[in-house]
Design goal:
This protein is of the alpha+beta class. It contains two helices and four strands, in the order H-E-E-H-E-E. Strands 1-2-4-3 form a four-stranded antiparallel β-sheet, covered by helices on one side.
Length: 123
């Protein structure tokens, strides 16, 4: 995960929260089944990343908007691919990217994200 947040494609990213949510099979109040091989946990991550563009002052409004959208899409794809390529990640169940509201892509050039994925603790 740290390698992903320090990749060349995602230069300025920060995490607001990381929540580890045990699966129901691993909860303390759940009776243990010796035949249960479930060894998974749910991880929820929220954060933001900056979308950097060069020569912003030389772009007209339409070009700026299109370049922001293209660059944002590339970062999203890199982030999703990076998470799914982590060997311990079994599945990615939630991907929310906000460019307005929690994010502000078109004024302050950042996107808010929330990702939720299942990890295999046996790997």
């Amino acid at each position: 995960m740290q390698n992903l947040t320090q990749s060349d494609e995602i230069n300025n990213i920060w995490l607001d929260s990381i929540k580890y949510l045990e699966s129901s099979a691993n909860l303390i109040n759940t009776p243990l089944d010796p035949d249960d091989t479930s060894n998974e946990a749910l991880v929820n991550i929220t954060g933001r990343y900056l979308v950097e563009l060069h020569d912003v002052d030389k772009m007209d409004a339409s070009s700026l908007r299109n370049n922001l959208i293209d660059s944002n899409s590339l970062i999203q794809e890199t982030l999703i691919q990076g998470i799914t390529n982590i060997p311990q990640v079994a599945s990615l169940s939630k991907m929310v990217f906000s460019t307005e509201g929690k994010g502000d892509l078109f004024n302050r050039y950042f996107t808010h994200f929330e990702l939720e994925f299942t990890i295999d603790l046996s790997k």
